[in-house]
Design goal:
With 125 residues, the protein is mostly helical. It contains three helices and four strands.
Length: 125
């Protein structure tokens, strides 16, 4: 099958986007913003210092990730069941609980993929 070249009004042309990964549509800016706010808030450590935004990429033991993920999932379940979840004298919102779970899933995925030496884009496995 021959892929068609794209030609634009300006006269510029590009190869077809067919079969290429499309990152833009897989995320939503509202979800990204919520997660960034959550992550920024949690950069602040108890001693008053702030860790780098990519500090989490240094890795955690899998057990630590799973234990934290389990707590956030439990919070989601409790909130959906109509309970108020209180931590450190503050109510945990559903948004916070979901972002906490998302963070731990990201950390778990990084742990799974971190030793990957060859990156294949597109549909190749």
């Amino acid at each position: 099958m021959t892929k068609k070249q794209r030609v634009f009004k300006s006269g510029a042309n590009r190869n077809s986007a067919e079969g290429k990964l499309e990152y833009f549509g897989f995320n939503n800016p509202l979800v990204d913003l919520s997660f960034a706010k959550y992550m920024h808030h949690h950069r602040h450590l108890e001693d008053g210092t702030m860790r780098d935004s990519d500090n989490w990429q240094k890795g955690f033991p899998s057990r630590v990730i799973i234990e934290s993920l389990s707590r956030h999932i439990q919070d989601v379940k409790l909130i959906y069941a109509g309970y108020k979840v209180i931590e450190n004298n503050k109510e945990v919102t559903l948004e916070e609980a979901i972002n906490g779970a998302k963070f731990n899933l990201n950390a778990l995925m990084l742990d799974l993929l971190k030793d990957t030496k060859e990156i294949k884009r597109n549909d190749e496995k």
